[in-house]
Amino acid sequence: MAKLILSMDGLVLKEIPLLKERMSIGRKAHNDIQIDNMAISGEHAAVVTILSDSFLEDLNSTNGTLVNGQSVKKHFLKDGDVIELGKYKMKYLAVPVAPGESSDYDKSMMFQSGPLPDVARLGGPMAAAVESVPAPASVLPAAAIQLLTGSNAGRELQLTKTLTTLGKPGVQVAVIARRPHGYFLTHVEGNRFPLVNGRSLDAQAHCLQDHDVIELAGVKMEFFLKS
Amino acid sequence: MANSLLGALEIAIRTDPGQVRGQNEDSVFADADHGMAILADGMGGYNAGEVASSMATKILASGLEDALQSATADAADGQTGLLCAQRSLVEHIAEANAAIYRAAEEQSRFGGMGTTLVATVFCDNQLIVAHIGDSRLYRLRGEEFVALTHDHSLLQEQIDSGEISREDARYSVNRNLVTRAVGIDPQVEAEVHVHPVRPGDVYLLCSDGLYDMVDDADMQHVLEMSAANLELAATQLIQMANDNGGDDNISVVVVKVLHEFPASRGRWSKLWSWFR
Lengths: 227, 276
Hints:
The complex is a heterodimer. Chain A is 2% helix and 43% strand. Chain A has one helix and 22 strands. In chain A, 26% of the residues are buried. The radius of gyration of chain B is 19 Å and the shape is globular. The chains are: A mainly beta, B alpha+beta. At the A-B interface, strand 12, strand 16 and strand 17 of A face strand 3, strand 8, helix 7 and helix 8 of B. Strand 12 of chain A pairs parallel with strand 8 (177-178) of chain B, so a sheet runs across the interface.
């Protein structure tokens, strides 16, 4: 399957497999690929994939779409093409599909010892396949929690880890998961559920908004995005 | 023996196709009362992988259940109980292997199908684990998080021989080549180990769809949370693998040990403990 490698300032942010026939790119949340940046239009561009061919289309965006430095409206993507939207770059990687091969096959394969003609090749210098690198930090903005009450009032807790647990074990605990599309608060233990802006959560994860006030184990704290 | 397990284990089980694959070729089974957990990751074209993994789980689960039930009646003491469980684990893996191999021989559309397998039986304060291929068993004990199984994979062999460092292994292109699988050959050898179990331990059985996508530190962090909320921990593991790309099917069985589960030591010891 073909994919796009999203990066900014040379830093790889995300790897996006082109799963759907049409993948929209834009600032608004309903896009398949959301890039939350002011330089990106609400609906900026789209990639349409038919069999193994992909086309890029600029959707009359304000700041335009470049491919290999050239402004384009419609463009047939070739392996290695670099798409530019504002400060973001997306490298298009076409994956050659061998005849008869289907992506539905499990990745595991049996490798039998015995005749080993392939081992020399396989054991050679490791080709660092981009696809094997789990996507690091996404375009999600950094966020933190500031304690508003209690003995540690004023202290700030950076939400840099995938999971951050809050509260008192045995009394009331909640967890904030840092996910590609936001920060989610979920109840973990305790008879009482955490309050967000005065309202009790249920068992579902809650997507935190900038300046949400969380109340947990008798302590109030504010969630905020850092820009 | 089975009675002493009642309530000793809490188990959460999840399987998910991931973000890329159209079908789920993993198969999972768990039974807290019998102290069993089984996970298989099938391989082979079309739906053959699914067939292989579900055959392995079903044959092993029903075979073990019968064996453990009768062992309960017969076992004079914990030692024989443990040996019984160990023997029937090996026997029923062999049975599953033969059945899958036969099916693949007989029907061309199943040709070459096979499956990895990791299976655990909890018995007499101990854990028996059998595995074949690259599905894993991890243990969280206190702050220590370790893999108890050693992959049967080309990559693991390369790491063992020093050809590749553990760090580079993450980027290896042949992470998915297994050197042993159920159903590929007429016979298969399962690697079997016995580990002592302590209350508070958390065990994780998982397919490569999890550990290829989520690093050990994150897995550990989630499992630490499972002391309070096991179901949520299982859900979070799947979610993290999907958030990181979900390249393959993802399956997890999380087993939390709530208290000890010693085997009854025969009639005399029962009487003795009653008097004490």
